[in-house]
Amino acid sequence: YREVHTFISLSLSLSLFLSLSLTHTHSLLYEIHLIHTVVYVRVFWVNVRLNEIMNYILVGYFLLLLVNLAVSADFQVQQKPRFYGVKVGKQVGFTCSASDLTLGQAVVMWYKIEKYGDDKDRIRPLENRRVVQHSGNMKGQLFIRNVEVKDSGIYYCKMNQTWGLGTELQVFRRSKPKVIERRNYMKDIIIFFQGFLIMLCVIIPLVWYYRLEQKEEAVYEEPEHDHTYEGLEIEHCGDLYEDLTAFSQNPDAEASWEIESPEQE
């Protein structure tokens, strides 16, 4: 009887220690306390082996530990909406909630960075007189009144050391119709000028390449016919040969020259 009493006392102490470490399983541990009390009474009246009771309790604690690990692994923080675009002077609100709303209370903090990629661990919690924060039951809300352009950025929710996915806020200024028309006119001019430059970049190389081809064709063109030696061709010398032959065959004609040989001297 003393051994059973000692074992039951130790099991009650162990359950109390686990109840302090696992804050989100109070109801389940309360049921275990009731089970221990029932076991204590039944051991007193019924002869049950001590080893069987120990095995059952160890299996129960092991299953409880597995449930705790599974819940901790699946803990995620969700933010809604993911993007918010408003004009100056409006009010916006963000919501932050956990994947499991039955875990009890949570500590919710809001942070702001200028752009994605900045180190979130070095930034400070959001503090602004126009910002109102509410939290409770694994939920958190953030409201910003009379938003300004400088309020644009990325807002992150941190719940129980777990970061949310972030919400981007963009604040736009109100523009007058004349200002909008002027901006559109300037955009049209810039687009037209860009198109004109593109046309020049296409046409100028084509014209230059065409002129270059024309110069190459002019350099390698066949030269004009030269008439310098045209009278020396055989076809044009026929009349001259005929005149010389006729002159040599005339016996009455006196030779205008005489040929002397060295023997005639």
UniProtKB/TrEMBL annotation:
The chain crosses the membrane at residues 53-73, 189-210. The keyword Cytoplasm does not apply. SMART domains: IG. One of its GO terms (cellular component) is B cell receptor complex. Residues 89-161 form the Ig-like domain. GO terms for biological process: B cell differentiation; B cell receptor signaling pathway. InterPro entries: Ig-like_dom, Ig-like_dom_sf, Ig-like_fold, Ig_sub, Immunoglobulin_dom. Keywords: Immunoglobulin domain, Membrane, Transmembrane, Transmembrane helix. This is Ig-like domain-containing protein. The lineage of its organism: Eukaryota, Metazoa, Chordata, Craniata, Vertebrata.
